[in-house]
Amino acid sequence: MKMLLNCCETFLIYSAIVSTFMMVCLTTADAGGRYLLSLPIMGAYEITEKYFMVYLIFFSICFAYREGANVRVTFLVDHLPPQLRLAINYLVQIFSILYGISLIVVTIPHTLQVIAVGKTLDVYNIPLGPACMVVPVGLFFMTLRMFLDLWQIKKGGAGFFKQDSATT
Predict the structure, then answer these.
(1) Domain of 91?
(2) Is residue 62 part of a domain?
(3) Residue 21: alpha-carbon gap to chain centroid
(4) What angle do CA 83, 84, 86 make, to 5 degrees?
(5) Which of 21, 24, 144, 162 could form a disulfide with 68 if both were Cys (CB 3.0 to 4.6 A apart)?
(6) Dist. CA 127–CA 111, nearest whole Å
(7) What are the C-alpha distances in Å from 66 to residues 28, 100, 106, 141?
(8) Does some domain include residue 167?
(9) pTM of the model
(10) What is the overall mean pLDDT for the chain?
(11) Cβ-contact 66, 161 below 8 angstroms
């Protein structure tokens, strides 16, 4: 299961990289056209906002979780006995999984509604459905990764509790 998840995650992260590259190219072309030629690209901001940023964020959250790129406030938990700290870590992981599931459950009907209505970008007739589908897909893979990490908490290998993740 983890091998399949890693393959899917690799595809998602490369898609996020491509999205970032396309966003940079479009933004650069738009800025160049606006300031050098007084010809901005119509809808560049909307495409960036409703497509490229969504792909970037939701296709990379699974990877970010796995790498421990989470901000944690640990000044209280660090002073607890190890057994209590471990129990709290399990509770945090379970709560995060349940929260991820609830986000998936909420975003799927919204995505289906956007597809059914046929909502498009304002400037161009590009459907918003594909961009909306990215949200539950990214959340699903992140939640699945969190679920599989339940068995790694005791070893300190779960994404939330890696020693090298960002702490405050």
Answers:
(1) 2-161
(2) yes
(3) 17
(4) 65
(5) 162
(6) 12
(7) 31, 15, 24, 11
(8) no
(9) 0.83
(10) 86
(11) no
